[in-house]
Amino acid sequence: MAAVTKVSLKLMIDTERRRVVYAEAGKDFVDFLFYILALPIGTLIPLLDQEMVGSLGNIYNSIANVSTTYLRPNVNKESLLKPMAYFSGGTGLPLHLPNVESSRKLYMSCKCLHVSDEFNTICVCGRSMDEETKYIGTPSANNPYSSVGDYVKGKVTYMVTDDLAVKPLSTISVLTLFNKFNIKEIGVLEEKVVDVGMDEVVKLLKASLLTKSILTDVFLSVVKEEVDCSKKGKEEDDR
């Protein structure tokens, strides 16, 4: 898995209502949002802990607790609990969810053209599939064996709304959003640049399953803490 780095977002905050109206984002952040949809749901449940809405966590725990006595011989419990994420390996995405297995290898025997993604699978010819091979084909973001995995074009600024709707940033899209939230004066908006790293990635995922005010819930408390600390420091300097 590639080393985790940070990307920046420029938040446009409605200071009167104390909410994020939208964020200006680059390719890296939008690629990450789209990458989430490429992940098997089993990779997400452990990250959510007890904050899951619904009963998917119960299914996950049932698999973890069921005795192998009740599973068919060819069922690997770990493959259900820790499914592979095909799209992220080698993509160069700067943001990744923690503990998500993203690499994938292919194996074959020396006699057949069949391939498997599990080491030492017995081939139809009876031989063990223990020779690593590679998929060769046209790189594509939708190809599960591709190492490309980037989704949107660079050198474009994207608008990401509070509920994570994404579209290219334009004057029309901004005015439409202002009209929706009855924002009459651009002066009520405050710009704030925030960094998105591993902690924020997990918070974004959790919030996206619980609310439609994701950016507000994740980032505005951080902004408030920074403002409070700044005021406190200024007051101490004035004494």
Automatic annotation (TrEMBL):
Family matches, as InterPro entries: DUF674 (IPR007750)
Name recorded for this polypeptide: DUF674 domain-containing protein
Species this protein is from: Quercus lobata (Valley oak)
